[in-house]
Specification:
Layout lengths: L1 H46 L8 H25 L13 H27 L2 H7 L3 H11 L7 H23 L5 H24 L7 H23 L1 H6 L7 H27 L2 H22 L6 H35 L2 H6 L5 H4 L6
Helix pairs in contact: 1-3, 1-10, 1-11, 2-8, 2-10, 3-7, 3-8, 4-11, 5-7, 6-12, 10-11, 11-12
Length: 361
């Protein structure tokens, strides 16, 4: 009888493990699908020969508007189904909006430079073109946060820089190099690093709620983009755009905005069902798959050294993630050993967030 019940418990455990594995695989697949699809859709909107639309700021502004509308719809759903949907109320406080404004300015620069980089470089080179984010993270953490970085982590950054330079060189050899696109990529990397640091500083203003921060950021951004579109001529371009009344065009625009909102959700969900380390590794693997898909879809033939540059950047990024994870774990273990018995009994154990290296933000 005991063996029988033990067998049933084993079956239940196997079923639970299988269900958990399916859940993790589904979330990772959703992250890959949304992220890769967003890049390809944005590339189509920004520089396709079919559309011939030269209004990158308008495209970016519209994505912010769609995100705000998505927040409003989900917030309304949360009111109707409070037990099933957890989302903050759709409410804009001018005081909070002003506190979030410095981050919003960086956010506007970040998403603008991201899209401008994608406009001028191919999808296959897009990851390498924006690969200096980790390097800027380390540098800004030292300059702004006075956070030092280990020699191992710096060596990983040197590997990433070497891969980036090799990638730029090979794009030049292939005759497909856009220096404007490379410069936009470098600026995008800088702004992504700045955005991470300022996000950490701004979260207390929105009660550490990421979705509230998303709402305020996109509301502010939607307003900031208006004079920028006027100055850049994007509004004039849209007025005379031949496909302004095309349902297909607005469908692509709306889907890009929805996917832009969804990527934040699936990224957080992937971290929740796996770990930050697995999320970073998944992102690196996704970048590799995205590069291969782009070469196949756009029928690009690349040299061995070009592929080598991608491999160097991917390896440097993954090694950096593993090094920082190891250092964080060492810090946690050290703090636990130094923890007083009184603190241990009171439950005041070191918090993971406080021990996370600032350069990982």
């Amino acid at each position: 009888m005991r063996r029988f019940y033990g067998g049933r418990r084993g079956v239940r455990k196997m079923e639970s493990f299988f269900a958990q594995s399916i859940k993790i695989a589904s979330v990772v697949a959703a992250y890959w699908f949304v992220s890769i699809s967003l890049v390809f859709i944005n590339k189509y909107l920004l520089s396709s020969k079919e559309l011939q639309l030269d209004a990158p700021l308008f495209v970016t502004w519209y994505q912010c508007v769609v995100t705000v509308l998505a927040c409003a719809i989900i917030s309304a759903g949360a009111k109707l189904m409070p037990g099933k949907i957890n989302f903050p109320p759709f409410k804009i406080d001018p005081k909070v909006s002003r506190e979030v404004l410095p981050l919003s300015l960086i956010f506007v620069l970040m998403i603008t430079f991201n899209n401008l980089c994608l406009k001028y470089v191919g999808v296959a080179f897009y990851y390498v073109g924006r690969s200096l984010t980790t390097v800027f993270n380390v540098g800004l953490s030292y300059v702004i946060l006075k956070q030092t970085t280990s020699g191992k982590a710096i060596m990983c950054c040197m590997v990433i820089i070497a891969g980036f330079l090799l990638g730029v060189d090979q794009e030049s050899v292939a005759g497909s190099l856009s220096m404007r696109g490379v410069m936009y990529g470098v600026m995008a990397s800088l702004c992504v690093a700045l955005n991470a640091i300022f996000t950490k500083k701004t979260l207390p203003s929105v009660d550490d709620n990421v979705w509230r921060l998303t709402l305020y950021n996109n509301v502010n951004a939607a307003v900031i983009f208006l004079p920028l579109m006027l100055l850049s001529g994007d509004l004039g371009t849209m007025i005379h755009f031949p496909k302004l009344s095309s349902i297909s065009f607005w469908s692509y625009m709306t889907v890009s905005g929805i996917f832009g909102f969804a990527i934040a959700y699936v990224s957080g969900l992937q971290i929740q069902v796996t770990s930050p380390l697995t999320h970073n590794i998944s992102g690196t693997a996704k970048a590799c798959a995205q590069t291969i898909l782009a070469c196949i879809y756009f029928q690009k033939v690349k040299s061995l050294l070009w592929w080598g540059s991608n491999g160097v950047v991917l390896s440097g990024s993954m090694l950096y993630t593993l090094v920082k994870r190891s250092e964080m774990k060492t810090d946690i273990d050290r703090n636990r050993r130094n923890e007083t018995p009184e603190a241990a009994e009171s439950g005041n154990a070191p918090e993971l967030e406080k021990l996370t290296p600032k350069s990982d933000l």
